[in-house]
């Protein structure tokens, strides 16, 4: 049984920027094999090269988490390159926040498809493997908007509340079924990434930009807590971790 991060194989979605990219770099630096998925090939190729040039182990595959077959192919790449999969980090997400009254219906669908269905696709891709090997860890990026309600984050928060429930249920079911699947849900507050670029509502973007400029911190903060959760023995789940910038109320 591998008790620490070294030599674990970790599939990361949303690895082309922000939290996913920072986590890939830290985990690879600490000896993990990282397998990177997102839609932008150029970003994934550049990050993979950076990790490999630093002596780390990495592979990538262009992946749209809305499609189960693509997430399954990403997991299959981990098995082919590194002989198995120990952890999936379901991190891909978008945040086109806006008041519900603005009725940005296409963005509602997009958030449900990426932030919720994308996580379900990650779970579905690893569950047969983790069940068979009676070991594995599923880590998912929720949000503080998955813990409490914020104006403008009606649908975004709904997807983040939903994945929180999903992860807790997986934890309980695994305990009952004896499959030893560890679950970790991460709840970041303001982290400076490309996420605000997905906001199309002008007033929301202005308010969020001001907040992030005032209090936001680096995605390495989340990389460190994910690293901590992975680097624990197989008999414990670090189930929930909330991360606020010190300056954020
Ligand atoms: P970024 O925008 O920097 O990263 C989002 C990542 O998701 C990118 O790698 C993007 O890659 C990927 N992605 C988006 N859509 C898809 C898709 N359909 N298929 C595959 N990958 C996709 O933002 P963050 O790093 O901040 O976001 C990461 C997670 O953190 C998200 O789930 C977000 O909701 C969550 N979060 C972030 C907070 C913050 O303040 N930054 C706060 C709370 C939660 P590509 O475009 O190449 O596909």
From TrEMBL:
Record GO terms (molecular function): oxidoreductase activity, acting on the CH-OH group of donors, NAD or NADP as acceptor
Oxidoreductase as UniProt keyword: yes
Keywords: Oxidoreductase
Protein name: Short-chain dehydrogenase oxidoreductase
Family: Belongs to the short-chain dehydrogenases/reductases (SDR) family.
Top-level taxon: Bacteria
Pfam family, one: adh_short
Domain Ketoreductase: 8-192
Keyword Coiled coil: no
């Amino acid at each position: 049984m591998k008790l620490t991060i070294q030599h674990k194989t970790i599939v990361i979605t949303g690895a082309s920027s922000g939290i996913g990219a920072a986590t890939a770099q830290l985990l690879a630096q600490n000896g993990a094999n990282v397998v990177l998925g997102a839609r932008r090939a150029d970003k994934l190729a550049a990050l993979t090269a950076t990790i490999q040039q630093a002596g780390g182990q990495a592979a990538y595959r262009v992946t749209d988490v809305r499609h189960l077959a693509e997430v399954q192919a990403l997991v299959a790449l981990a098995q082919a390159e590194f002989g198995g999969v120990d952890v999936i980090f379901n991190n891909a997400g978008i945040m086109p926040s806006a008041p519900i009254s603005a009725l940005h219906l296409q963005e509602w669908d997009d958030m449900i498809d990426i932030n919720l269905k994308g996580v379900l696709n990650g779970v579905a891709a690893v569950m047969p493997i983790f069940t068979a090997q009676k070991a594995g860890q599923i880590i998912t990026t929720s949000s503080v908007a998955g813990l409490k309600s914020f104006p403008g984050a009606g649908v975004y928060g709904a997807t983040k509340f939903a994945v929180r429930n999903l992860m807790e249920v997986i934890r309980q079911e695994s305990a009952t079924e004896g499959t030893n699947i560890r679950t970790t849900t991460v709840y970041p507050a303001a982290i400076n990434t490309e996420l605000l670029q997905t906001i199309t509502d002008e007033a929301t973007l202005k308010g969020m930009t001001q907040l992030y400029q005032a209090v936001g911190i680096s995605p390495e903060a989340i990389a460190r807590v994910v690293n901590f959760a992975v680097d624990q023995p197989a008999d414990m789940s670090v189930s929930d971790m909330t991360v606020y910038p010190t300056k954020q109320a």
